[in-house]
Write a structure and sequence with these properties.
Radius of gyration: 15 Å
Number of strands: 4
Distance between the termini: 32 Å
Strand order of the largest sheet: 2-3-1-4
Order of helices and strands: EHEEHHE
Strand content: 25-35%
Number of helices: 3
Largest sheet: 4 strands, antiparallel
Helix content: 25-40%
Shape: globular
Length: about 110
């Protein structure tokens, strides 16, 4: 019997929490880039939530809470020009590569 994983549930909502830590002196630039990404991404099909927060205890750290109606919507979002441009240009503003934590609601 082959070892198979269950098929992903494309109909299920997808929630992610990316975290961005600015390189010293680039906090304002990162904040501006994230604000622009937020504004454009909220218009993408299937977007349930796309809000960037400033970490009140760690200056220069930003947390994004994003939710998508389906995994297909997230995949389409990741192919948008505004997302590709952000990902390709953000490294110069970051102290460390950004992390993305998948979130699951408690049931």
């Amino acid at each position: 019997m082959p070892n198979t994983l269950p098929a992903p549930q494309d109909a299920a909502e997808v929630w992610l929490m990316p975290v961005f830590i600015a390189k010293a002196g680039h906090e304002a630039d990162l904040q501006e880039a994230l604000h622009s990404l937020q504004t454009l991404s909220r218009k993408d099909p299937g977007c349930l939530e796309y809000t960037v927060f400033s970490d009140g205890q760690r200056p220069g750290t930003f947390v994004l809470l994003e939710g998508w109606a389906r995994n297909e919507d997230l995949e389409a979002h990741n192919e948008e020009d505004h997302v590709k441009a952000f990902v390709n240009g953000v490294d110069r503003l970051l102290a460390v590569p950004f992390s993305v934590t998948p979130l699951a609601p408690l049931t």
